[in-house]
Every structure is written in C-alpha cells, then in structure tokens.
Amino acid sequence: MRIAQIAPLYERVPPRLYGGTERVVSYLTEELVRRGHEVTLFASGDSQTSAKLVRCCDVALRLSPIVADPLPYHVIMLEEVRRRANQFDILHFHIDFLHGPLVRDFAGRTITTLHGRLDLPHVLPFYKVFADLPLVTVSNDQRKYLSAANWVGTVHHGLPASLLFPYREKPSGGYLAFLGRIAPEKRPDRAIEIAVKAGMQLKIAAKVDRVDLAYWEQTIRPLVQAHPNVEYIGEIAEHEKPEFLGNASALLFPVDWPEPFGLVLIEAMACGTPIIAFKCGSVSEIVDEGVSGFIVESVNEATAAIARIPTLDRAKVRATFKRRFTVERMADDYLQLYRRLIDTQALSRRRAAANPMPAQREETEAGRHLDGSLAHTSQGFTRLETPAG
What we know:
Blueprint: E1 2-6, H1 20-34, E2 38-43, E3 52-55, H2 71-84, E4 90-93, E5 110-114, H3 123-129, E6 135-137, E7 151-154, H4 161-164, E8 175-181, H5 188-198, E9 201-207, H6 213-226, E10 230-232, H7 241-246, E11 248-253, H8 263-271, E12 275-278, H9 283-286, E13 293-296, H10 299-308, H11 314-324, H12 327-354, H13 358-361
Parallel strand pairs: 1-2, 1-4, 2-3, 4-5, 5-6, 6-7, 8-9, 8-11, 9-10, 11-12, 12-13
C-alpha cells in the first residue's frame, strides 16, 4: 500500500523532547514500513525515519530560533502534498484543519486523525463545511462534541514498548511522577497538593510553553519552591522517560480538561507503573479501574488512592498495556480503515462507470484528478460506519 503520513511541523518525528502527536506518527510510520508498505512522511527536515522523508522545513518549528509564524511552513507542506497526491493510495493527515480545501476533490482517499480537543467553538463550523472528510478519533469521548461528523473509526494510540519502555517490576525511586506540560488544564498544582497531603516526594518533568510562562511564574514555581518534597526537573527527552516513569511508585494525571487521549498514561503502563488519574475526557477509556490504576474526582480521593497503590500488581499493569496499547494493534486498526476506504472508493468508481450521470458523460480533462480518476463530489462519497473501539 502507498501511504502518506502528514505530520505537524512543530516537533520533529519523533520529537527530541515533548510532542505527543509527532511521537504517535513516528510509531505508526515505522510499523507500517516494517510491514512492507511504501510510506512517505511529510515532516520537518530533522525528522528520523525509515520511510521516505519529504522535508517541509529545515528543523522542527518549536525549537527553531528564527521561526515566528508556523503557518507559512505548513502551507509549504500542503503544496508538497498537493504535488504528490496522485502517488498515494491513502493520505493520512495529523494536522487538524489546514488540508480541508486541498483534499476536497479526493477526500475519499484521505483519513484525518484528530489528536486534540474538539469542544472549542471553532470546530463545529469547520466540520459543517467539510462534512465529507473521513475522521478518526483517538478516544470515543472526543466524539460527543462533534456527533454529526464523518467518523470512520476510533483508534487508541499504541507504543513499541519492548523497544522504548521496558517493564520495571521493582521501582527504586519511591516518588510520584508528573510528566507533560506546565499548563492550567494539566493541573500540576493539583499534583503538588496531592503529594504534600500524602507526604510523598513528587518529581515534575514538564515543558513550559511561552503561552504558559505566566502560569509557571505566578502559580507553579512558587509552589515548587515552597515544598521541599517537590522537585521540578524540566523537560526530559524520550530516552529519559523509562527511567523516570519506571522508577515512580505511581503517575499522577490530575487533568482538568476533556483529555483527548493522554499518551503518558500508556507510557507509564508500559513500564508497569500504575496511575492515579482524574475522571476527565478519555481517562475512563484508558485506565482500567483497580487494575492499571485508580480514577478519582478530587484531591482527597487521589490522596487516599496513593495508600492503595501497593494493592496493584505491576505485572497486571504491564499486561493491560500489552493487551490494549501496542503499536502493532494501532497499526492493525489503521490498516483496516485504510483498506475500507480504498474498497469504498473502488466501489464508487464501479458504480459511476455502470451508471454515468450526464455531467460525467460530458466531463473534460479539467474535471479529472492528476491520476485520471473522476473528480470527487459529496454525492459520490460513501460515508463509512465503523464501530467505535
């Protein structure tokens, strides 16, 4: 299968430091290549991949000292995609909205994974206009904000754990871990409060985006400085995660927003590290209550759950990960969706050939795709219905 993977340019693929979407794109791309598919990755020029790389900027935009506006670089990427669009059986987008107008005439050969939150006011108007785009959620919870969209499936993330996140049966750190971003919706302040109430050490490994600098300076840094049991170690690289997560007694995930997935949840599970997570967004889909962790609704509940952590079997945490969240399972799910889209397009072409519409009889070459297939119309695209899961 000839597959294009189109990644955001904010981080390289895979990221040097923080970056959930680009990390998932990397895992999926490498697994598809391993299985013998012909994969082209559109990403930043410093990306590392065994697929064919189309360089759309020199380095990842977030870490570039000269980039002030990421939009022009993403438009450049879309032009690179447009020039090559007829070379692929499937084009898999991970960039939210920008490609909507570009793929209008061949939407049936595309799939778009929505990695972010869908409860914001600008989302619904966009997908009312671009109603034909085949969309994938990374959790079932995402769908409730956009029920009328053209959902073709839900695919939970997966990791190549045997390579990156070895199982840690006996952690040596004796601390609670917080991994991610210093941001109001991630609630590191809750993590600090929980650790203080429980009398445990807390290590915070997190990046601070420019937009969150005031929150860090005014709210979180003073809390860190006020409590000797709390340590901020900064943003960590991928190779540092197994040690950080694997040696923790538990991961704290005290989010306060409709979390689309929460990649760190399954990274911790891969190490055998249990989770204490607030009941928001996808959490109830990802964490198996009483097996891979505890789901709570308040700081007091979270503090009480810490005392119950020794009752959880780290081997069962790891087993839950292997059953549900491997990269092999993720690739299987996406390949099934790719094949269904391809089969649907083939069926549409056969029907069009057997029952040509007047407009199709009179078409000119200007009405064809670069590959010679008929231009797509909303009437000619069959919506796919795939059970969530």
